[in-house]
Amino acid sequence: MNDLEKYREQLGLCDDKIIDALAERNSVIEKIMSYKEEYGMPILQPQQEEKQKTRLLAKLKDNKYKDEILDVFFSILKNSKRIQARKLFDYNIVLIGFMGAGKSTISDYLSAMFAMKIVEMDQVIAEREQMSIPDIFSTYGEEYFRDLETGLLMEMQSHKNTIISCGGGAALRERNVVEMKKNGRVVLLTASPKTVYDRVKDSDDRPVLRGRKSIKGISELMEQRREKYEAAADIIINTDNKTVLKVCEELVQRLMEMDEKNV
């Protein structure tokens, strides 16, 4: 056996060790998830993730392969998050609520913590139509836009472990709610009119707020929509005066409790 063959054999042995170690690591991830569930511990623990990264950076401080190892290890961490998401949610999470209630912020955080894909419905529709949402409304009308929402919600039913962030008016159409329910769990995020106003006052891409971008106007519109929002929701979470982590912890806990009841 020449040196090249020996090196290739060594490489194969390394690959076998990596595969075995990854399988063991993924198994430990599932054990940790089960332990947290059994003892009612928070599923989301960003501080622990930061500790992992700090430890890894310290260990690789003088390693000449630092960048390459970090690249691989961060992929491993991302896959670990996917394993957690599959264990927790074998369905899509559909976020609904009034504009400014926090749907985009919460979906971004959940995606970061569980490596879940995000579908921002308004963004996807605008990209596909190559028009802004206000332009779609003014050119084709609201009914046309709602049809696009319905089609996208139907399309998403072939996916899993996806966060679907809906536009503020999506849940007002009964057909849309039917398609949301087929996707998975529908989570209504709420906030006070004052909170919503503070979040949207500088935005010009909210066609339904034309002529009523005030706390009073927002309050009236929210009340008009409240009954349909609540009827569509599986769970309701208020986002006022809560950190993103707190809202997400509550969301995950409530979904887990709901799933336990349905077993």
Topology:
Elements: H1 3-38, H2 46-59, H3 66-88, E1 92-96, H4 103-114, E2 117-120, H5 121-129, H6 133-140, H7 142-155, E3 162-165, H8 174-183, E4 184-190, H9 193-200, H10 215-232, E5 235-238, H11 244-262
Helix pairs in contact: 1-3, 4-11, 6-7, 7-8, 9-10
Provide a descriptive summary of the structure in words.
This protein has 263 residues and is an alpha/beta fold. It has helices spanning 3-38, 46-59, 66-88, 103-114, 121-129, 133-140, 142-155, 174-183, 193-200, 215-232, 244-262; strands at 92-96, 117-120, 162-165, 184-190, 235-238. It has a five-stranded parallel sheet, with helices on both faces. The chain is elongated, with a radius of gyration of 23 Å.
Uncertain parts? none
Which class do the helix and strand fractions yield? alpha/beta
Alpha-carbon distance between the two ends: 59 Å
Mean pLDDT: 91
Cα gyration radius (Å): 23 Å
Characterize the overall form: elongated
The SSE string, one letter per element, is HHHEHEHHHEHEHHEH
Summarize the main sheet.
Answer: 5 strands, parallel
**Care to count the β-strands?**
5
Number of helices: 11
Q: Give the neighbour order of strands across the main sheet.
A: 2-3-1-4-5
What is the beta-strand fraction?
Answer: 5-15%
Helix content: 55-70%
